[in-house]
Amino acid sequence: MMKLVIAKDRFQKEIDELALITEAEPPVVTRVLFSEADIRGREFVKRLCREAGLVLRTDEAGNMFARWDGANGKLSAAATGSHIDAIPNAGKFDGVVGVLGAIEAIRALKKSGYRPQRSIELIVFTAEEPTRFGIGCIGSRLLSGVLRPEKAAAVRDRDGKSLDEWRQGAGYAGSLNSVCLPKDCYSAFVELHIEQGPILEHESTDIGIVEKIAAPSTLRIQLTGVGGHAGTVLMPERHDAGLAGAEIALAVEGAATGTGSPDTVGTTGVFRIEPGAVNSVPCRAWLEVDVRDTKAATRDAALAQIEFAAAEICRRRGVVLQTERVNADPPAICDGSLVETVAAVCRQLGIAHKKMISRAYHDTLFMAQVCPSTMILIPCRGGVSHRPDEYASPEHLELGVQVLAQTLAQLAGSTGTV
Ligand code: GLV
Ligand code: MN
Ligand code: MN
């Protein structure tokens, strides 16, 4: 297998440029779905795709598709892709590596003289991150049919603004009914991503190949207590929604550590109280809880324990509890032969690699329901992600693109030689 020439300086420069399109002060990256920064980021990516000679289209959810037409239009395309939205206070690599890296992979393949049999399609998914609506992977959920259009229409942000209002504001006004992909439209899907964990770095391994993605879930909790004056409402009289929330957050920790599985993790990442004044008893609290495990049954047992504990805590404190399971997705099992294809590419290129679980979720979680799927992971410094100091080395970025490009060439087949 001949090594492809990856324009790593240009790739790095594009990552740096996209990182400057942010709602926050650089180097902090914040690009929440359909924010002005997200829309400008999309334009940036579209320009690169056009310059690379790709055919662009978007669907009504705002998913973007950039296609390199293969010689045989009757064959289903080989797909790759990721996301460019970023949580508040994020770094510049999460998602972006899989989008800009795919563009560079295609450019490198084109430059080498390779011509694909199948088309190769880059998908830039809408809202992999759950920031705006509390639910992640909206684009790939709709594409896979896991999220029904009528359910998506009911999704609202914390100010009550609907997905329809947000997407219409961004220029996507049509019905979501057309978003779900037809059967057999892709032959395979491979996502390049930073690991977001420490294993590859610890083991001095350059590439991870994902065999399974842990099962994620989100629980939304609303607590209504009784507010009042912080000086005059005596302690036995209180129904403090904030304290009920605090106890629930501890119960989340207890449930996650108590399953007996080291794979269970539980996080209360959103915790807001009202009125949020120092001399006022909190009358309302909102919590968003993330629970995951590699086994859905273990995760579900932890979720049930949290709901049970929340009910007891609220009864005891005289606080009204409302809970909603926003999502509780099964783990994704990646395609064995696709994993082998990526492993063979690594072997032929002499790259140290290992098969592994992804504990972060990705659009691949849902693409795995559409077609055979897997992921190519590269190390990131200290395993750090979802932070501004997230970092992947230029060498690993180059290797990731090399492996992605060679894998896509294998999947799409060739009309000549690479
Ligand atoms: C994806 O960003 C995740 O939270 O795993
Ligand atoms: Mn992320
Ligand atoms: Mn990501």
Structure summarized in a few sentences:
With 418 residues, the protein is α+β, with helices and mostly antiparallel strands. It is 34% helix and 25% strand. Strands 2, 3, 4, 6, 7, 8, 15, 16 and 17 form a nine-stranded mixed sheet that branches. A four-stranded antiparallel sheet has the order 11-13-9-14, covered by helices on one side.
Description:
Strand 2 (55-58) and strand 3 form a beta hairpin. The protein is elongated and about 80 Å long. The mean pLDDT is 97. The protein has helices spanning 8-19, 36-51, 96-112, 138-144, 149-153, 163-169, 199-202, 241-257, 296-317, 336-349, 364-367, 394-412, and strands spanning 29-31, 55-58, 64-68, 77-83, 86-90, 120-125, 186-194, 207-213, 215-224, 228-229, 265-274, 280-281, 284-293, 320-328, 332-333, 353-358, 373-378. The strands form four sheets. Strands 2, 3, 4, 6, 7, 8, 15, 16 and 17 form a nine-stranded mixed sheet that branches. A four-stranded antiparallel sheet has the order 11-13-9-14, covered by helices on one side. By secondary structure, the protein is of the alpha+beta class. Bound molecules: glyoxylic acid (GLV) and manganese (II) ion (2 copies). The site of glyoxylic acid has 4 residues, from loops.
SSE blueprint and pairings:
Layout: H1 8-19, E1 29-31, H2 36-51, E2 55-58, E3 64-68, E4 77-83, E5 86-90, H3 96-112, E6 120-125, H4 138-144, H5 149-153, H6 163-169, E7 186-194, H7 199-202, E8 207-213, E9 215-224, E10 228-229, H8 241-257, E11 265-274, E12 280-281, E13 284-293, H9 296-317, E14 320-328, E15 332-333, H10 336-349, E16 353-358, H11 364-367, E17 373-378, H12 394-412
Parallel strand pairs: 4-6, 4-7, 7-17, 8-16
Antiparallel strand pairs: 1-5, 2-3, 3-6, 8-15, 8-17, 9-13, 9-14, 10-12, 11-13
Glyoxylic acid binds at residues 129, 136, 360-361.
